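This follows on from our talk about sequence and fold. Go ahead and set the record down below:
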Amino acid sequence: MDSRAVRTFRVFVVVTAVVAVVLGIVAIVWPRPSLVLVALVFGVYLVVAGALRVFAAVRGHGTPPAWRWTSGVVGVLVGLAGLLTLVDPAIPLLVYAVLAGIAFLVEGVAALVGAVVGHPGSSRVPTVVSGVLSILGGVVVLVAPGLALTVFTVFSGIALVVVGAAALLLLPPRAPMRR
């Protein structure tokens, strides 16, 4: 690899690693505002995506009417979801947490059923433990969705800091300068 390519790659790694560390620290120190900011950005994205979909449906000359109507309706629904997110960012966050809690419960029940009926390649005891822990996790998330989101945000922040620091520690050496 030539020296310019190595320098460019190093700059890319340093910038992305520093951004990861900074965002990770922000998520750890201010988990709830970080979640709200992510929800607001997502809300803006949904409004723009919905408007573009409606525009494409209206301007989609030569496309089948079924596609245009479907695209238009989906665009309106996506845009409304975005507006709802912008009005109250807590709603989609809580919906996400509740869906995650339900998913944990379903996964736990499926694991317990698998442990009872048995399936090839799995041991009953770890499958039962996994199922019980998944059900307990689902109950905790459903009982305290806000706390679950905060914990998730803090753990995500820790992961960002670790990944960013690791990238800086594993930075490739500088390329020798050509003269």
User: Anything to note?
Assistant: The chain is about 85% helix and 0% strand. The longest helix spans residues 31-58.
